[in-house]
From TrEMBL:
One of its GO terms (cellular component) is ATP-binding cassette (ABC) transporter complex, substrate-binding subunit-containing. InterPro entries: AAA+_ATPase (IPR003593), ABC_transporter-like_ATP-bd (IPR003439), ABC_transpr_MalK/UgpC-like (IPR047641), CysA_C (IPR041193), Mo/tungstate-bd_C_term_dom (IPR008995), NA-bd_OB-fold (IPR012340), P-loop_NTPase (IPR027417). It is a peripheral membrane protein. Monomer. Homodimerizes in the presence of ATP. The complex is composed of two ATP-binding proteins (SugC), two transmembrane proteins (SugA and SugB) and a solute-binding protein (LpqY). Part of the ABC transporter complex LpqY-SugA-SugB-SugC, which is highly specific for uptake of trehalose. Involved in the recycling of extracellular trehalose released from trehalose-containing molecules synthesized by M.tuberculosis. Trehalose uptake is essential for virulence. Responsible for energy coupling to the transport system. It comes from Mycolicibacterium agri. This is Trehalose import ATP-binding protein SugC. It catalyses: alpha,alpha-trehalose(out) + ATP + H2O = alpha,alpha-trehalose(in) + ADP + phosphate + H(+). GO terms for molecular function: ABC-type transporter activity; ATP binding; ATP hydrolysis activity. Transmembrane segments: none annotated.
Length: 380
């Protein structure tokens, strides 16, 4: 177990005249035993961050500190980290059992007795559901099985820190969900500080004690899953979490409310955005499809009236596209209300589920939050 501190990390690739800034001034402090998730789209700098902690890339600027020791110039082997990549190398001529045993035989882990090795391998293979594969060779495994064996190779090795880069990416959705639960348990059991990289928001929300959202090499938001889900710092984070994506509607502030669409419907200004909303201001309102509720066909009083233009069943849910005041809202329902295409519906959203962002194109910040820099600092 160890803390990890990344301070002002910079890493660029390519020519100095036109560098690719993979990581651009990243600072985070990770606690002892924490399961810390880095979430971001492709190219955000997640893998480069992980490799910097492992010592697999020479960083341009900044420091990496593990367990209170500055390891910025320390060789990977002496950092006592275990890293799993998305694409794994297994020894093709060794069985799964031998592949799993080899990290326990080398270097500082070589002191294990045969029975301790067997016990560790048993614990990890049970968790990963690969007990039945122990006598097979890598060529006799599916991609998903190979990925689990490779993850097993990392987890059998006691280390101060586990660095896991998209370790579940080759698994099908059902197995992924099951493995998520198992990994969470394993994390809690071993209490080893873990940095986990993913572009899958569900994985991040399910696994992370905290999540750092990265974009273009920079930290956008850091917090617990609940913080990030409930108060996304900008429209980028709001759009990154949730499927279908959050609805973003242009609006204008009126007396205590925000008029949306062609102005024929509105929502209240949520308490946290009040201080940043003045009459006449243009804003963007975020409403998650799962937070919009169909309360009936035509209900008097408050609510958003609309007409269902599309109803699509997606597994257990039905996704409705509702035309309201000239804009289209995506609404996720259980489908039990029997709403069909062409129906008139009344929709409601709880005040606490209304997100207000600054107006503009591209990504804009949430209103009512302290400024970004102090928010990131306070979270570390
Ligand atoms: P993904 O989810 O696709 O793995 P990522 O968030 O892990 O993406 P990185 O792999 O850290 O992103 O890459 C960040 C940026 O740095 C990308 O633009 C990538 O093309 C670039 N990059 C990474 N490694 C190298 C390299 N060895 N040489 C040149 N450019 C690189």
């Amino acid at each position: 177990m160890a803390t990890v501190s990344i301070t002002n990390l910079h890493k660029s690739f390519g020519r100095t005249s036109n560098p690719i800034r993979a990581v651009d001034g990243l600072s985070v402090d990770i606690a002892n035993g924490e399961f810390f998730v880095i979430l971001g789209p492709s190219g955000a700098g997640k893998t480069t961050t992980l490799k910097s902690v492992a010592g697999l890339v020479d960083i341009d600027e900044g420091t990496i500190d593990i367990g209170g020791r500055d390891v910025t110039r320390v060789e990977p082997y002496h950092r006592n980290v275990a890293m799993a990549f998305e694409s794994y190398a297994l020894y093709p001529q060794k069985t799964v059992r031998e592949n799993l045993a080899s990290p326990l035989k080398s270097g500082r882990t070589g002191q294990y007795t045969e029975s301790q090795r067997a016990e560790r391998i048993h614990q990890v293979t049970t968790t990963l559901g690969i007990n039945h594969l122990l006598d097979r060779f890598p060529r006799e495994l599916s991609n998903g099985q190979r990925q689990r064996v490779a993850l097993g190779r990392v987890l059998v090795r006691p280390a101060d820190i586990y660095l896991l880069d998209e370790p579940l990416s080759h698994l099908d959705a059902k197995l992924r969900a099951a493995m998520r639960a198992e990994l969470k348990q394993l994390g809690a059991m071993s209490n080893t500080t873990t940095l986990y990289v993913t572009h899958d928001y569900q994985e991040a929300l399910a696994l992370g004690d905290r999540i750092a959202v990265m974009r273009k090499g920079r930290l956008v938001q850091i917090g617990t899953p609940a913080d990030i889900w409930r108060r996304p710092a900008d429209t980028f984070v709001a759009r990154a979490l949730g499927q279908p994506e959050i609805n973003l509607l242009d609006g204008v502030v009126d007396d205590g409310r925000i008029r949306l669409g062609d102005g024929s419907f509105d929502v209240p200004i949520p308490a946290d955005a009040h201080s940043d909303c003045s009459r006449g201001d243009r804003v963007r309102v975020g409403l998650r499809p799962c937070d919009i509720h169909v309360v009936g066909p035509d209900v008097d009083g408050a609510g958003i009236r609309g007409r269902v233009v599309l109803a699509e069943r997606l597994g257990r849910n039905v996704e409705l596209t509702v035309d309201a005041g000239g804009v289209q809202l995506i609404v996720l329902t259980s489908g039990r209300d029997g709403v069909t295409e062409g129906a008139t519906v009344t929709l409601t959203v709880a005040d606490s589920d209304i997100h207000v962002f600054a107006a503009g194109d591209g990504d804009t910040p949430r209103l009512g939050l302290p400024d970004r820099a102090s928010l990131l600092e306070a979270a570390q």
